[in-house]
Write a structure and sequence with these properties.
heterodimer; A: mainly alpha; two-stranded antiparallel sheet; elongated; B: about 210 residues; mainly alpha; Rna Polymerase Sigma Factor, Chain: A; 11 helices
Chain lengths: ~250, ~210
Amino acid sequence: MTGHLTDDQLGTLARSGVSDNEGERTHLASCASCLDRLVELERLRRSVQATPRRIEAPLDLWPAIRADIQTKVEGQDVDRPSTAVNSFNNWTQRWNRVRLAGLAAALLLLTSASIASFVLGRRSGRTVVSAAANDTSVVTSEPASDAEPTAITSPDSGNDMARTASSGMSEVMLDDADIHAEQELLADLEMRRSSLRPETSSEIDSSLTVINEAIAELRAASARDPKNATLRQLLAASRERKIELLRQTENAS
Amino acid sequence: MPSARASLRHVRGLRLMADSTHSDGSSEISDEPYGTTSADLAKRVLAGDIDAFEPLYRAQSSVVYALCLRMSGDTTRATELTQSVFVRAWERLGSFRGDSSFGTWLHRLAVNVVLENLRSDNRRSARVVTDADSLKLPDAAIADSPDERLDIDAAISRLPPGARVAFVLHEIEGYSHQEISTLTGLATGTVRAQVFRARQLLIKALS
């Protein structure tokens, strides 16, 4: 054996104490470097083995656990018992719920305002400021077409026709990373669903519905005017907002 | 008499805990003495008796807390995680068939709960712990205080998160690289590198 022993080999040796491999034994007998490493690893292993398997928590968690379980059993909207940790958690949970609702409302307002501004802007052929796409950027609308744009009056999140019609330019705006991130976050949310309080789960669903409706509106508008870059930009921004919302839900409980 | 009831519960928990401590330090609830097995308790819990869950908690809480503390490196987080583990255990108790011991079943569930939470923490802080990332972390990740050099648990708590999780699962909990890879979703090579890095840092801390 010419090269030094690998960390894996040394780790296994430190664990077992003996080597069945003649080459390893020969190498160790002549290589001070590997032998030193082995001694270090054995020392580390002894330290690790000496660590206690049991460590008592600084406080009795049973009352808090029992209260959590009782709450789940009864499905009541009550706060957790007020241990120091839970008091902080309760505050952050409330704050997160407020932020969730606020974010969804803001998105809806921004998106609706942007669509309205865009439609009005197209009618007058003026420049439109797109808040939803970027708070500071100014985008210019496409030149007004001959056809009169259709006003969007009501959201329709379940509009399969709109989705089908839009499955062209709009979807091009989504790159694979965004789609993957959204799917991963949605899957993560579903995994955590059982541990969420019912009202939190409901609020998240409501917020997602609002955002999905906004996205559906934009998809429908984009399907009617597929060459319109502003609408595509708004749609992409809305998808980003959805991902942002899903990330926010990771703080919810 | 609430106090007497609480005392009885406490004694029952202690009995189970005593049964659970083997000479090799492993943690199981015995299914033999005293007539109350973990499977019996689980049945009572599933029938709606929340208090039957307390002896299971008393017997296993210190093992679960130790795991949470070592994997998170933070006492407050470990307390939260321990609480989450037992609430999740109550939710999933229907999947405990008694084929393995309650301790084994709970340990697997605890590892999953902790990893799930640590992943969420990573996403929240928009920080992805990769192999390259962990290798870049400064040696200052290990404290230079002489007292802490002597304390392996303190040294473990100061490891970079990815290296800490891999080291604890591999060296303390006995998971193979492949099992850790499956649990964490990291490549086996990455897990090996994390364990290697952790060893390097700990050897330096203890030298």
